[in-house]
Fold each of these.
Amino acid sequence: MKILLCLFTTISFSLFAATAQIPVSGMTCTSCASAITKSLVRGDFQDVKVDVEKKMVTVIIPEKKLFSKMELDEMGTKMKVLIKEAGYQASDVTWTK
Ligand SMILES: [Cu+2]
């Protein structure tokens, strides 16, 4: 029963393509934005938008496939690590379609 419930939860959180929004503190200018973008692109996230004023990083995952909750969590963690490596503090990732 626990396994079934777990499976259901995983499937119900699946999405077609996905957009990640990550609040990031510490960035103040365009060179901050480009440092964050470079780090994410190096980590294989190609579609990155940084809004310095709103302190928000948006990453679009273009593949038209289903992502499990676990896959989204893994990608989110990787994004946060890459942002941290660039020298900035990332908050929790919010996923939308
Ligand atoms: Cu800066």
Note: Residues 27-29, 31-32 surround copper (II) ion (CB under 6 Å).
Amino acid sequence: MLLLAKNTLAEGVPAPTNGAALAHRVAALNTRYRHHAATDVMAGALRNVGQVALVSSFGAESVVLLHMLALIDRAAPVLFVDTGMLFTETLVYQTEVAERLGLTGVRILRATDTNQRDPDGTLHNTDPDACCALRKTAPLQKALAGFDGWITGRKRFQAGTRAALDFFEVEPGTGRIKINPLAHWAPEDVRSYMDENRLPRHPLVARGFPSIGCAPCTTPIAPGEDPRAGRWRGAPKQECGIHFLNGRAMRQGDDT
Ligand code: SF4
């Protein structure tokens, strides 16, 4: 309740005092922003939801939300999880994009116990779920504890389970609101936005990586393959578990 109590009263949308009130507030936000553009949704979230962070992987499509955020508030928090296993290209791209867009609120998150739990850096070979939980989910969950909401890059077209994805969602069990400004975007919308705004692309996209995760777990894809076919190739694992349900990681994509 303490977390929710600091939410601001804005634009006639009352701050929630319990789960039902939070759901009511989210419904009101969805009604209010139903016909608005992605930038309006993001700006509305920053005004109405309290402390909000953009969670970004600085991956293949991340620059769209990063650019929108820079237009609204360059000092807004951006959470970037450095798993210690990322491509060098991602680390360089992260620095370059943040500098070019003038983003001053980027926070780099790292797990603090990898030396104890994955001393030789091979956990991804034997237990990728545990590796993702250690290197991605735990640091992010810890960082998000201080926020009322977080912005994601999830989109309706990405999976059947996201067909009804709305701009604002209650994150069950955490008291947070998830904001999905690109919920209604198609792949061509993403490409058009990057072209029209002349945004820098992640260098690995041109080398056959339409979805970019950690170096040991990402390969390029062949023409015609699903864009995520290069993630954990050959393993049953498909998702990183960076979204949460009842305070625990869920098996969902890390398209941030
Ligand atoms: S993507 Fe691979 S290396 Fe990265 S955290 Fe998950 S299992 Fe570990």
Note: The first helix runs from residue 2 to 5.
Amino acid sequence: MRCFSSVAAAFLRLCAVVGPVLLGVLTLLYTGRPAISFLAAGAALAIAILACDAWLIARRDWLTGGVALTTQIGFLFSVGGYAAAPFPAVCPLPKASPPAGMAIYVLPTGVNHRTAAFAYRGGSPWEKWDSVSNAVLVRHPQGDVLIDTGFGRTIRSQLEAMPLLFRLATDLEQSRPAADRLDAAGYDSKHLRFILLTHAHWDHVSGVPDFPGVPVLVTAAEHRFIYDGGFPNAPARNIDPRRFQDYGFDGAPYLGFDQSRDLYGDGSIVIVPAPGHTPGSVVVFVTLPGGSRYAFVGDLVWQLEGLARREERPWLEARVLGEDPTSVQQSMRRLSAIAMRYPQINIVAAHDPRGYVGIPELSRSAVH
Ligand SMILES: [Zn+2]
Ligand SMILES: [Zn+2]
């Protein structure tokens, strides 16, 4: 009898310690080949393990109990691997009170002829992609804002200073600089209060010299990055340093981003940090009085497929640009979550022409 009870005790201990391993095997069998028998065996085993746990606690067998706890935690951890990895939480659509008279216009400045293979992993080398470079004018009663500047009047000389290989791989077709488009529309440049950069790469700052005296808003991280070297931000280094105006993120979380900057305090132009492509890259959310919403994501992705398929830039381009892959992935996940949750927000990737459909070009009648 004594012998039998010691065998039974050993069995109960074994059940508490090894049971979770068997439970893990049953879980694997069920997920691979769903059958009620696996479920029933798993449920019975789980109950048996809990009963053995109770028995160990009653006997104050802390040594075996500790080992059993370890394997049981291991089992729970392995089951956790089956749980969904949801997108970052997306808060409710933030409130905005855009003032009457606010509007946005696109100012096309040119095109770079490339292929989808250049833009994102898995993109076809046969699919031609016209990588547009645009400036976007946001008209606002507190002062107009130009989001990026596209190719400026001096783009040719800026390009001549670039490495030969880069120039050979760049098939650029300039249309009309943003400053010329504004002049042609009769726009009074005294309304332009800020140039707001999504980031400081050459194709986004090229037109800055065409707007002398207009402050250029950058994050502190991007400001440092400009002077860290690298040919893609060489044109930014030639901008009068006194024109850069740093800003911080002192606002509440915004659509899953931890920080924000509400430029005019009315929710109409809200900037969030989205580092990765460059250390100080941002996304600019614009809300218009009619309720239209836009997210200007800069170069987080070059083509919208990058977000939809969550495909980053090809390895070589990401390395040449010095991207931080972990930050790029984080920023892309946040934007993908927003795109899925709020399809009414128009995602504008700087170089994808499809994002600008629906944004009018500036005309004389719009200005006067
Ligand atoms: Zn860029
Ligand atoms: Zn760019």
Note: The first strand starts at residue 103 and ends at 115.
